[in-house]
Amino acid sequence: MATATVPVELPELTKDELARYSRHLILPEVGEEGQRKLKAARVLCVGAGGLGSPLSLYLAAAGVGTLGLVDFDVVDKSNLQRQIIHSTADIGRKKLDSAAEKLEALNPEVKVVKHDTLLSSANALDILKDYDVIADGTDNFPTRYLVNDACVLLGKPNAYGSIFRFEGQASVFATADGPCYRCLYPEPPPPGLVPSCAEGGVLGILPGLVGVIQATETIKLILGKGATLAGRLLLVDALNMRFRELKLRKNPECPVCGAHPTVTQLIDYQQFCGLAPAKKEENAVKNGIPQITVTELKRRIEAGEDLFILDVREPFEYQIANIGGKLIPQNEVPQRLGEIDRDREIIVHCKGGVRSQRIAEFLKQSGYSEVVNVAGGILAWSSEVDATLPKY
Amino acid sequence: MTIYIPTPLRPYAAGKDAVDVNAGTVSGALDELTQTFPDLRKHLFTAEGKLRAFVNVYLNDEDIRYLPEKDATAVSAGDTLSIVPSIAGGCQVSDRMNSFLWLTRFPTLSPERRRKGRARSW
Asked: How many CB pairs under 8 A join A and B?
């Protein structure tokens, strides 16, 4: 039976707590000892969103002594359909502040710890190490794998839940003898193949169902009672209201929890999930045209280089925003080649980098030897170099 | 036998949540499924025909990776096959992550919008 490690010295319950938890105290599976275990327990909820809402509310109500929350997001109106810890008045507030307020109001005995950050390889072990159980309610693959690996490395059980449209998955990973998330899915899907909730939609109630399953598993891990989902994957189909259970096995060759692990410290999970930021484009070449980043272009301008910057947008666009390049709209370029110096390096830009790429290719075919395209165009310039430049 | 189609893959299987096939083995059943719904194939298998690492297939409640004969395991009419892909949602999708996924998923969006999505650091 998988259990969380809780201190041997259990804290006493106050008179108020005895009253508050009376329905637990008369349950043989909880009782006073179990309630003291809950009071001693420290649980980290990763994400204060759809899953984190019911999860943290029920854990606070149940008397989990220390409840950590990790989130860096703010409450958006579109969250309220399912993230029941936040209210309409909280729109625009940090989810952490909004959630902590509700949890403290529900149960002032609970110590709420706010981790206002994006969980990363750099901070995960440090944050997770102070908790007994981790409840992963995140929304993306890099964090899923990060939480899994950190739990395995630290030996902390992970009450896992995940949702999509009408469907949910729940399990308990990284118990002493049980499988981990990587035993189930050794690799993440390539970006974009599996849609996120924001794209695919989600039934607002579903995170309630799955988050409460996570909360239940968390409580059982703390109490050391019952049979947790370790070694089982629970599938929830809310549309047909069908719950199915599949066997999960520990993969002896698992790169993290197997007999000969190859992952012995946290890695770059963005890269692992194929989401690494695009390589610096200084050296990138597209269809024979070297690409220059806006930051590199800025550096060259500031270095005082005499550059021929060709802007191939339309005049009205130039009026909205320009970086001082020579304006020749793309359709006029073939007739106005005389205005473009053949002996110089030509740096072509447009709004986003597509028209300019086409014109750059055209110039190359027309005999220009040095033609460079500005990757991302003036929009990238506005994002990365000069935010005062209007986007349109 | 019945093959359960998970929500994310239903768009590639005419919206069906379950498909009945007549096959002798697990791989035969998956072949029949992907012949009926060719769009499913690339979501389930790599170009080399290997089951993708983020898709698991269960014969009844057992992962076929752990069956002695794996996908050559014999199946009968009463068996079920479940396709279970990884899903990441917890639905506190940050806008940044959201736009990234959105943009990578819909490469037909204007390059400007894709660029905007990529240019952000998260």
From this structure: 182
Question: Residue A201's closest chain B neighbor by CA?
Answer: B91
Where are chain A's structural domains? 15-272, 281-384
**Superfamily holding A15-272:** NAD(P)-binding Rossmann-like Domain (3.40.50.720)
User: Nearest 10 degrees: CA dihedral of A354, A358, A361, A363?
Assistant: -120
The yes-or-no verdict on residue A294 having pLDDT over 60 is: yes
pLDDT at A1 over 60: no
Q: Do B54 and A188 touch (CB under 8 A)?
A: yes
Q: What is the pTM of this model?
A: 0.73
- Chain A touched by B111 (CB under 8 Å): yes
Domain B2-85 matching CATH 3.10.20.30: the answer reads: yes
Identify the band that residue A199 occupies on the pLDDT scale cut at 50, 70 and 90: low
A119 neighbourhood in chain B, CB within 8 Å: none
**Contacts (Cβ under 8 Å, ≥6 apart) of A290:** A283, A284, A372, A373
Among A139, A249, A278, whose Cβ lies nearest the Cβ of B91? A139
List chain B domain ranges: 2-85, 89-122
Catalytic residues of A: 197, 350
